[in-house]
Structure formats: C-alpha cells, structure tokens
Design goal:
Radius of gyration of chain A: 30 Å
Distance between the termini of chain B: 19 Å
Strand content of chain A: 15-25%
Order of helices and strands of chain A: HHEHEHEEHEEHEEEHEEHEHHHHHH
Number of helices of chain A: 14
Order of helices and strands of chain B: EEEHEEHEHHHEHEHEE
Oligomer: heterodimer
Structural class of chain A: alpha+beta
Helix content of chain B: 25-40%
Strand content of chain B: 25-35%
Shape of chain B: globular
Shape of chain A: elongated
Chain lengths: ~375, ~230
C-alpha cells in the first residue's frame, strides 16, 4: 500500500463521477488541441506559400483588400490592374534585382475551375527553381503551350501532348511540373503574352513580385517604387502577417470558446473533489487516527486531481488530434484553405501536445488546491463523527 | 510495580464558548500503568469517548497535560502528534471504520504505510492469518461479517506494534459469539504486554478488564481494580 494505490482506488470508486469528470476535462482539452493544431498547420502553410513566392516585395494595385492579398499566396484569380508601363518603371528603380509580373486568371476545364497563371517563362524558372516531371519547359517567352502543376495533371490525367483548353482555346500540354507541395501543384502556367491575349488584357498584370538586391534597403526600395509608379507595395512579411491576422482573428475566437470549455472542466474537477472530501470525511478521520499527516492527505487529493488532469489531457490530445484531422477542413474553410489540400492545414506538433498535457495537469492541480486544503482542515474527531 | 504509560493531569475539554460552552471533561487526572487493561464506563454523553480521543491525540485538551509513554502531547506539533498516533497507539472503533473500498489486507497495509512502520505485505498477511482471516484477505469489508470486520480492525490497530490499544465500544456491534472471541483475543494481547483502554456500556465486557473507571459529567466518579 502506498499513496499511488490509495489514490488510484479512490479515483475509481465512483465510476460514473470519474467518467463524467474525465469527459469534461477531455473535451475541453480536445477543443484546445484541435484548434491549436489546425491553427499551427495553417500558419506554417501560409509562411511556406509566402516563401514559395520567392519575392521580398509584392507590388499590387492601390486599394487591395486582404482577400486579394491572400490570393497572391493561393494563386486565386485576381483583377488585372497594373499596366505594363508601370512594370517597366519598377524594373528601372535602383535596388530592384528582378521584377516579375503575374497574371492570375481562371478557366474552366472539364467543368472544373483551374487557375491559369500568366508568367515570364525564363524569369519564373530562375525564381522558382521548378523541375519538370515529364515533358519539357517553355522554349521561348511566347510559346503556345501550357505547363501543368502536378496535382492538376493527376486530377485530369494529363500528360505532355494532351490538349488543354483555356477559355475554350486549345493549348497543348508541353510539360508537367514535379510535385512541390505548394500552390504551384494546383495551377497551370502559360507565357504572359499568351495569357494577356487570351484574356484580352493586352497590357495589364495582376501583381508583380520584386526581389531586391540589398535586403537592408528593402524599405527604401519599396518607397522608391511607390514614387515612380502608381502602385502599392507590401513586403512578404506584411503579406504574411496580414493573412495571418485574418486567420488569427477567427482562430482567437475559437480558442476563446475552447478556453471557456477548459475552465468549466476545471470547475468540474473542483466540484468532484469537494464532493469526494465530503463523502470521505470519515475515512480522512480514520487515516489521521492511523498516523496520516496533513501533508499525506493533501498529497492524496492533489495526486487524485493531477491524475484527472493527466488522463483528461491524454484523452483530450487524442480526441483533439483526431478531430483536427476529421474536421480541420470544415473549421478552416476559407479562401486560403479552400485551395489547399486538407491535410496540409493540420499539423501535429509535439510541442503542442506536451504544452497541452502540462497545461491540463497544472490546471487540475490548481483545481485540486482548495479541496485538498479542505481535507487537511478536517479534525480527526469531527471527521469520524459522521458515521 | 510497572511504570506509567498514560498520565493525565487536570485535563479539561470544553466545546463552544460563552453561553453555549459545554464542559465535556472536567479536570480529570488518572494514570494507567504499562500492561494495564482499563474499562471506562458511564452514561452516554458524559465524556467517555472524548476522554479516549484526548488520550489518543485525536483532539487536544482545553487545559491540563497528557503524557503518553514519555511524550507530552501538548508540546507536539500536528506532524509529531500524527507520528505518535501511527506508532504508539492502535485505535479500534465501534463501527469498525474500515476503508470500504480497500480489501481486508489493504486495510491493514494502509496502517503500516501511514504509521511508517514495516511496509512488507508479509506483516499484514501474518496478522490476518493470526486472527483467522487469511482466506478473507482479498475480501472487501462489505463481504465480511461484523466479527470478521472487527478482527480486521484489530489487526490494523496492531500493525505497527503499538504499546497502547484504545477502543471505543469494541463489542458494540458484535453478536455474543463474536464478542466472546474478541474478549479472549484482548485477554491474550494484554497478557502479551499491550496496554488496553476501552470504553464500553456493557458490564459483562467491562468485567474482563483489570480496572474499572466510571465517568459521569466529565469527571471520574469511581476508579477501582476489577475483582476478576
């Protein structure tokens, strides 16, 4: 017989109460873990896409809203709003190493929407370090052909030589990109001139990705660009933070709900243990008669409480991770995740799991303080009077 | 002549204060020799159990001093008092007071653990076997008869080999057969050197003790040796 045996027996003697108290803490923790897991996965994905852009600065038309900024990262359709002459002006700014235009459009292929992005073939290849899975890359800046992302090729079973249609116009598939795990997998690429011709926007692009030659002078370069051209400029970090703030505000609201759940579960533990102290007051008296110190009694209740936290935490983490996998895509259904595969937005992070377990145990221990204190305040005579 | 193991000097215990003040024990002084067997009798509510609780260190007196085997209880802090309860005293209660969710064996083991004595399961099992409960070791108290439960309670009280056994109506809930068995057992323990102090209503039970103390209104009314 030792403290652990006694506590374990005590924990299990009221099975119903044990199960429901545990359910309370598990559910609270599960909600917490699920939201953290989804949130972290999403944040990581957003940062990865921003890196994939390969730009330090993004030149956009003035007055773009956050939704449009998100679309830069997702490859969604965008208004074609920057005239080509502006691009030339930007290319002329000192400190600009490269400025590459994007024309983000969309077409229907076999009744499915598919992003079509007009690019400068050579510049894009240098920027993105794409590799070709099958077929080949563009031979000239205005070749009539289309290079298809890995996921799109798989979805439509496309191979080099097949015919793709953009706005009803037939274009031969010349190459398939190797899977990159980014938005490029779910897009198709054609030379910018061809895209401008098909979409009838002869001298306009959606946005421009700019690489600066000196990162130290990024701010100055950004200001200069805005001086010479009638455009807005955001840094890659601003872009990410603006996207994260949208995702984050939704996440914060959900996490607040989870926190209320966790708090309610903690009160559940307090309630269960106070009832247990009341029920066991005679046994507490007997234990004191048998030589138990107040410290032992205190430890017994704290341990019982801590076990609720640990078991509830383990159950909660398991349920939460499962829930994140099963429902993650519904919970985060927004413009950003809509274009991503579901699994990419869910990330299991051992840090989160350890944090949640520690939090659960600490919270339970905190909840156990008052009941444990009450147990030590019982006098043996008082305690044994309740026969 | 043996030495004193329990000494009470002008011990009083009052409950409440002001107009509601009740004096449970009034200036009681008595001495119990090592190896003695004292029966405390008296009407209900006249302080018998309170006296036992004070001697056992379960409660502190309002005035006076209690010395138990050389330790003055009033000078001990809560942890030291707990250690005295665990090592020097074995308690036996009227309602057995076993832990309902622990087996007979575990009920004895918990005393070994809390008293800080020998922690081996062997000792707990030996005690149960000695009291004829070897085959009931893994039964819960609810599966045992009253007599069996009281024997488990005595095994528990003896777990840490205390010198003193304090019993509050130990036969109160036993049939006459179990009562006779228990008294025989107590006789053996007393012969083996244990000091026994028991509160009882039952004159037959009291007649087995070597000394009889009658308590009334919180005072000792009579204190005489028992002509056995």
């Amino acid at each position: 017989m030792n403290l652990w045996t006694l506590v374990w027996r005590n924990l299990l003697r009221r099975r119903g109460r044990f199960v429901f108290t545990l359910a309370g803490i598990s559910m609270g923790m599960a909600a917490f873990v699920a939201l953290m897991t989804i949130g972290q996965g999403l944040t990581k994905e957003i940062k990865k896409q921003a890196q994939g852009l390969g730009a330090n600065l993004v030149v956009t038309p003035k007055g773009w809203c956050a939704y449009e900024q998100i679309s830069v990262l997702t490859g969604e359709q965008l208004p074609e709003a920057i005239p080509m002459p502006e691009l030339e002006k930007i290319r002329g700014v000192a400190g600009v190493k490269s400025a590459i235009p994007y024309l983000n459009e969309k077409t229907a292929f076999r009744n499915q929407p598919v992003p079509v992005i007009g690019v400068w073939p050579e510049e894009m290849r240098t920027l993105q370090k794409w590799s070709i899975d099958s077929g080949r890359y563009f031979n000239s800046p205005d070749e009539r052909g289309i290079v298809v992302g890995a996921a799109i090729a798989k979805q439509f079973k496309l191979k080099p030589g097949d015919e793709f249609t953009v706005r009803g116009k037939p274009i031969p598939v010349i190459g398939i990109l190797r899977e990159a795990g980014s938005k490029d997998d779910i897009a198709t690429f054609i030379p910018l001139t061809l895209a401008q011709q098909i979409y009838d926007v002869q001298d306009k692009v959606s946005f421009i990705a700019v690489q600066v030659s000196d990162l130290e002078k990024m701010e100055a370069t950004s200001l200069k660009i805005q001086e010479v051209a009638n455009v807005a400029v955001v840094t890659d970090k601003q872009l990410v933070s603006s996207v994260l703030s949208i995702v984050g505000s939704v996440g914060a609201a959900m996490q607040a709900v989870a926190a209320v759940g966790v708090l309610a579960a903690a009160f559940g533990i307090v309630n269960t243990l106070l009832t247990a102290v009341h029920e066991r007051r005679r046994e507490i008296g007997i234990m004191q008669a048998l030589g138990s110190t107040r410290r032992t009694l205190f430890m017994a209740f704290m341990l019982e409480s801590g076990l609720y936290g640990l078991l509830g935490g383990i159950l909660g983490v398991t349920i939460g991770v499962l829930a994140a996998y099963l429902f993650g895509s519904y919970l985060t259904d927004n413009a950003f995740t809509a274009s991503l595969q579901q699994s990419q937005t869910v990330m299991i992070d051992y840090g989160t799991i350890i944090l949640t377990l520690s939090f659960s145990v600490c919270l339970a221990l905190f909840a156990g303080l008052y009941p444990a204190y009450r147990a030590t305040k019982l006098s043996p005579v008082e305690a044994m009077r309740h026969v | 002549m043996s030495d004193a193991i329990i000494e009470l000097e002008s011990v009083s215990k009052t409950y409440g204060s002001g107009a509601a003040e009740t004096k449970a024990i009034s200036e009681v002084s008595m001495t119990v020799e090592r190896g003695g067997w004292v029966a405390i009798m008296g009407p209900s509510g006249h302080g018998k159990s309170t006296l036992l609780q004070l001697i056992g260190g379960l409660d502190r007196p309002s005035a006076g001093r209690i010395v138990l085997d050389g330790s003055e209880l009033g000078t001990l802090d809560a942890a030291e008092l707990a250690a005295v309860r665990g090592k020097k005293i074995g308690f036996v209660f009227q309602f057995f007071n076993l832990m309902p969710h622990l087996t007979a064996l575990e009920n004895v083991e918990i005393a070994l653990w809390l008293g800080g004595g020998a922690r081996s399961n062997g000792r707990a099992m030996d005690l149960l076997e000695r009291f004829g409960l070897g085959d009931k070791a893994h039964h819960l108290p609810s599966m045992l008869s009253g007599g069996q439960q009281q024997r488990v309670a005595i095994a528990r009280a003896l777990a840490n080999e205390p010198d003193i056994l304090l019993m509050d109506e130990p036969t109160g809930n036993l049939d006459s057969g179990s009562e006779a068995e228990l008294l025989a057992l107590l006789g053996e323990l007393n012969k083996a050197g244990k000091t026994l102090l028991m509160v009882t209503h039952n004159p037959t039970v009291a007649s087995h003790a070597l000394r009889l103390v009658r308590v009334k209104d919180g005072r000792i009314e009579e204190d005489r040796s028992n002509g056995v």
